[in-house]
Amino acid sequence: MKIILLGAPGAGKGTVARLLTETDGSVQISTGDILRASVREGTELGKQARGYMDRGELVPDSLIMGIMKIRLQEEDCKKGFILDGFPRTIPQAVELEKILETLGIKLDFVVNLEVPREVILDRLTTRRTCLSPECQEIYNVKSNPPTTDDKCKKCGSPVMQRDDETEEAIIRRLSTYTQKTSPLIGFYQREGILKNFVSLDSKETVGKIREALNKDR
Ligand code: AP5
Structural domains in the chain? Predict the structure, then answer.
């Protein structure tokens, strides 16, 4: 599959993307995960991105496009990919179209995950993430808790809250989403490739996305 996942922070993009990769070996490409890894490793990209991320603002388009131009040409993308958290602005979407055209890649469609705001706020304050860079499993203290001593069930590493999960940063991320990312819904609707999914149960959503993929083939 070759799809884009759109949705507000906390809509469940990461959770749905991980479940989808299990179905056909497509790779999840999360710009958030790439940036967090760069921050942890102290790379030049990480140093430039950190302040924006901690404040809940978007990292400049030029930084993101530099990463994604290279990432989309890597070997593992040939099996298929799920873009999680990218594109995030209209300029990123326009640039992505050019890259895909150059590479001769056609998207199946764009998935928009619709989740009520109160559910999102609850999910973001109760999310926990595995600290292991190789694992980064997503948990939720209410719906999918880690072990009782806050360890990852998959790899045993500690499970923590992300740096951008302060109340202030969450409010800023939601407002950034409304201003800069939600216009992408109209952008892809006009292109005729948008599919909306009300997503309260991630497994059910994955089933519906699979169904839509099979129907389109
Ligand atoms: P990023 O990592 O992309 O964060 P985000 O979009 O804010 O999305 P989240 O990861 O917070 O949420 P999600 O939708 O993946 O939800 P999840 O599955 O975890 O970006 C972080 C930062 O990096 C940005 O703020 C920006 O600074 C920068 N950045 C990244 N990409 C960029 C770009 N392209 N351009 C510029 N800057 C960029 O689920 C949330 C919680 O809910 C979890 O606890 C989960 O267990 C729970 N949950 C999920 N689904 C369900 C369900 N069905 N039922 C119950 N609980 C559920």
Answer: 2-26+80-216 (3.40.50.300)
